[in-house]
Amino acid sequence: MDAPDDRHASERISMNAIQSTQNSRHSLVYGPVKSWRFGSSLGIDPIGEVSICSFNCVYCQLGQIQVHTTERRIFVPTAQIFEDLRSLSPDEKIDVVTLSGSGEPTLALNLDEILAIAKQLTKLPTVVLTNSSLLGDRMVRDALQLADIVSVKLDAISSHQWQRINQPIGTMNLPDILAGIAQFRGEYTGHLAIQTMVLSSWTTEMLEDYIQLVQRLSPDEIQLNIPSRPRALVRQLDARGNNAFESDCGDFRQINCISVDVLNALADAIYFATKIPVRCAPIALS
Ligand code: SF4
After folding, report:
1. Which CATH superfamily is domain 4-284 in?
2. Does 104 sit in the ligand 1 pocket, CB within 6 Å?
3. Whose CA is nearest to atom 5 of ligand 1?
4. Is the C-beta atom of 131 inside 6 A of ligand 1?
5. What are the structural domain ranges in the chain?
6. Tens digits of pLDDT across the chain (286 residues)
7. Which site in 71, 257, 259, 260 is 20 to 30 Å from 26, CA atoms measured?
8. Do residues 179 and 213 lie in contact, with contact meaning Cβ atoms separated by under 8 Å?
């Protein structure tokens, strides 16, 4: 984990790393990958080869996040993504275009441009998977209006749990994140999903708190998931889009989590109380 105290060192290393990979031409468009939530999903990576995020989640498939920051920047030029999208000739049906990739997509200052060209070139629905950390920023909320579906992360209802699971940068706090989600809900006209990764069994009190919270936030859908693989501890470019990856590093951390049956029971209870559709990997409810 990049502990808050390590942040400045992490950011110093990172800026050099970003500079040194700017000329890299790994495609910024990948897949399509099979998504349990969205079908056949073509991925766009607005971050690039260095993983950059305001969180460092214990289950992150990218491996240890290399740059832990909340600073919005242009990490890859929009023209490069335009080029990669235009040269694409997929031989299979694609349902959606998803912005996720190598970190938190709302950190990309050109998020609005990327969403606009994705729509213009593909004519497909666009999805953004965000960790919710920048929803308090009006520019981010405005850019997300261009997406057809936005899936916002909410893994915890207590600050302690949130710190433990998402390992956010030290300057952030959960009440601000929740306020950002609520503000975005009030403005966003597209399909809003709340995505929750469930690692351990919830007490009755936790379930009640979660139900109250989602009732207040009123998403169009709730997506519950559990980690499907051990976490790689080093950067895994191939893991963009939660893709399966091969690694010769052998450096993994096993993640203990609940069973699919327990997850389904949780989904049932949430749907029963809220009547908000709950999609639960790999079984959909409602
Ligand atoms: S899972 Fe998402 S939010 Fe969490 S560290 Fe990885 S990229 Fe960031």
Report:
1. Aldolase class I (3.20.20.70)
2. yes
3. 56
4. yes
5. 4-284
6. 333 333 343 443 344 444 444 445 688 999 898 888 899 999 999 999 899 999 999 999 898 899 999 999 999 999 999 999 998 877 789 999 999 989 999 999 999 999 999 999 999 999 999 999 999 999 999 999 999 999 999 999 999 999 999 999 988 999 999 999 999 999 999 999 999 999 888 999 999 999 999 999 999 999 999 887 666 666 656 656 554 444 444 555 667 678 889 999 999 999 999 999 999 986 444 3
7. 71
8. no
> Of 143, 278, 183, 156, which Cα lies nearest the Cα of 223?
278
CB of 55 shorter than 6 A to ligand 1: yes
Q: For ligand 1, say whether the CB of 62 is within 6 Å of any of its atoms.
A: yes
The closest-lying atom of ligand 1 relative to the alpha carbon of residue 102 is: 7
- Are 230 and 254 in contact, with CB atoms under 8 Å apart? yes
- Residue 25's φ and ψ, nearest 5 degrees, are -120, 40
Of 156, 38, 163, the C-alpha closest to 94 is: 38
Give distance in angstroms: CA of 20 to centre of ligand 1.
23
Spatial separation of the C-alpha atoms in residues 27 and 14, rounded to whole Å: 20
Ligand 1 centroid to Cα of residue 19, in Å, is 22
Name the burial class of residue 155, with classes exposed (0-12), middle (13-18) and buried (19+) by CB atoms within 10 angstroms of its CB. Answer: buried
| Vertex 146: Cα angle to 29 and 177 (nearest 5) | 95
Ligand 1 atom with the smallest distance to the CA of 62 is 6
Residue 37, beta-bridge partner list: none
